[in-house]
Amino acid sequence: MASAFQSFWQYLVTHFSDFQLATLGTFIIHESVFFLSGLPFTFFERSGFFSKYKIQKKNNTPAAQERCILRLILYHVCVNLPVMIASYPAFRFMGMRSSLPLPSLSVIIPQVLFYFILEDFVFYWGHRVLHTKWLYKHVHSVHHEYATPFGLTSEYAHPAEILFLGFATILGPALTGPHLFTMWLWMILRVLETVEAHCGYHFPWSLSNFLPLYGGSDFHDYHHRLLYTKSGNYASTFVYMDWLFGTDEGYRKLKAIEKEGKEPDEVY
């Protein structure tokens, strides 16, 4: 398996330049993973599949879903791709490479874990700032147009917020200068995580049922359905930042009420 993968990577670096792989290659992988993982949830909403696992009873209209998809394509082509191209020299300067040999798991796993922790920390504080009155009104409210998220809404945001999210995501790799393979793996895992957090469904197999520190869809869905002044749950991946700073208080109270089998008060 490892040998076959090495051969495939050899093909890539032989037929494409570092620039092509790091920019167009990264863009293609991002778009493929994002839309392939996010589109099924638009179908689930329309068809009613898995309705018993849906967190909110409300559904988005097909028109609202289509508007989201069209704007995402526009934002990705006009914002994401140019940023990837513009940031290539910086990543080369910081030591990113695509040549063989591929890094070992003992290198990849600590780096990706570090990226998750750093991104979550930066995202938490940036997200709290985006919920201040002026920035919410002029920037972050775009992302909150969808009070009932459905996977693809994870990257539906104002262009200024897209740049911030991109900064939080690439900061770790920029500091460590990883192999391009590690960069791609990190991007794939981050995309899958944010799509899952916005999917609108809490399944028996959701990671949050098995990983105590992982937030997941139920944790983030609470953030979307509340007023911006009450929302909390600002972290992107884990729950400990909100716990440490008390910004998950409302969510914890709601979970306690639900655990007792009572009907929660109207909080949004």
UniProtKB/TrEMBL annotation:
GO biological process, one term: lipid biosynthetic process
Keyword tags: Endoplasmic reticulum, Lyase, Membrane, Transmembrane, Transmembrane helix
Membrane disposition: Multi-pass membrane protein
EC primary class: lyase
Chain segments annotated as transmembrane: 21-44, 69-88, 100-118, 162-186
Reaction it catalyzes: a long-chain fatty aldehyde + 2 NADPH + O2 + H(+) = a long-chain alkane + formate + 2 NADP(+) + H2O
UniProt-annotated location(s): Endoplasmic reticulum membrane
GO molecular function annotation: aldehyde oxygenase (deformylating) activity; iron ion binding; oxidoreductase activity
Keyword Phosphoprotein recorded: no
UniProt-listed InterPro entries: Fatty_acid_hydroxylase, Sterol_Desaturase_Related
Top-level taxon in the UniProt lineage: Eukaryota
EC number in record: 4.1.99.5
Fatty acid hydroxylase domain: residues covered: 112-247
The family this protein is said to belong to: Belongs to the sterol desaturase family.
Protein name, per record: aldehyde oxygenase (deformylating)
Native species: Dioscorea cayennensis subsp. rotundata (White Guinea yam)
